[in-house]
Amino acid sequence: MDPEKYCRVHLAERIDFTDDLAVFRFRPDEALPFTPGQYATLGLDVEGRERPLLRPYSVASAPHEDVLDFFVERLEDGSLTPRLWDLEPGDTGWVRRRIVGLFTLDRESGRPRHLMGATVTGVAPFVSIARAHQHALSNGDHSGEPPRMLVVHGASHPRELGFYHEELATLEREGWLRYVPTISRPWEHPDWDGETGRVGDVLRKHADAEDFTARNAVAYACGHPGMIENAHAILERAGFDEEHLHEEKYFRA
Ligand SMILES: Cc1cc2nc3c(=O)[nH]c(=O)nc-3n(C[C@H](O)[C@H](O)[C@H](O)COP(=O)(O)OP(=O)(O)OC[C@H]3O[C@@H](n4cnc5c(N)ncnc54)[C@H](O)[C@@H]3O)c2cc1C
Fold first, then answer.
1. What is the pLDDT of residues 189-207, one digit of tens each?
2. Are residues 137 and 182 in the same domain?
3. What is the model's pLDDT at position 32?
4. Which of 48, 62, 88, 121 has most Cβ atoms within 10 angstroms of its Cβ?
């Protein structure tokens, strides 16, 4: 592995939410700078392969943290994710030094509101953005107009929202972020009193209710390509143009 390009990372902790959803918390040998919302290329050494097996993952932690968190879904027939699930704390991998991507908070538009939709692990970039913003606020950095965020986070079951459900609900009390979880199998969770149904529909409902419009907001969608296409169509009908619709598709449908 070219040490100029890749940094050694050590698994510090792993938090399993379900059999196939977990946060992998890696500690890099050196600090790796990035902008909240970007993705890292994570690699694992695989026996018989000359080069590590690499896949992109949105960073869920914020730049001020000394770890890199990845919220990952295991694919039964996947190449990298079953190997990730074999890792235990102390095991190592690689992360490309250049953490990249354009799926970051759009400040250039000058719009103060940010409408964000995610399926399950697609919440990662929004968590990074929210954590970084909260960190800046707690350090007294109030430069510029403070962004307002509305995050709709969809899953089939509540446990798939992970600890981000509690984390973002707690941040909501600060007033600059609204967190709306939605589940698609509510009949299996009679105690669930939150939203139900598809991310795109819930996004539209809460955008209308909270005045996130095509004039004052930028929209973002991250995760499953089906949700992104559905949300795109709904937001287009609400007047959002391509310039103010940002997308991060995790795979091709
Ligand atoms: C910019 C970017 C950021 C990403 N961030 C994340 C992240 O934060 N968390 C995360 O879990 N994944 C993320 N992904 C997806 C990730 O890179 C891998 O594709 C995924 O983990 C599967 O890897 P694998 O090697 O196990 O499966 P592969 O062997 O690469 O994939 C097997 C097949 O499954 C498809 N596939 C990939 N992901 C899914 C899925 N979720 N559901 C159904 N089919 C799928 C692939 O297109 C391929 O056809 C991201 C992808 C991109 C492009």
1. 999 999 999 999 999 999 9
2. yes
3. 97
4. 121
Give the pLDDT of residue 45: 95
171 and 240 in a single domain? The answer is yes
Q: Is 55 in the pocket of ligand 1 (CB under 6 A)?
A: yes
* Shared domain check, 129 and 87: no
Residue nearest to atom 13 of ligand 1 (CA): 57
Q: Which of 102, 123, 250 should be mutated for ligand 1, with most atoms under 8 A from CB?
A: 250
Q: Helix 199-209 and helix 225-237: axis angle, to 10°?
A: 40
Q: Is 79 in the pocket of ligand 1 (CB under 6 A)?
A: yes
Query: Which of 54, 55, 71, 83 maximizes ligand 1 atoms within 8 Å of its Cβ, making it the mutation to test the pocket?
Result: 55
DSSP state of 42: E
Instruction: Single out the residue of 122, 121, 151, 156 nearest to residue 219, CA to CA.
Output: 151
> With 0-12 CB in 10 A as exposed, 13-18 as middle and 19+ as buried, what is 216?
middle
Q: What pLDDT is stored for residue 146 in this prediction?
A: 73
How many domains is the chain partitioned into structurally?
Answer: 2
Give me the domain span that covers residue 49: 6-96
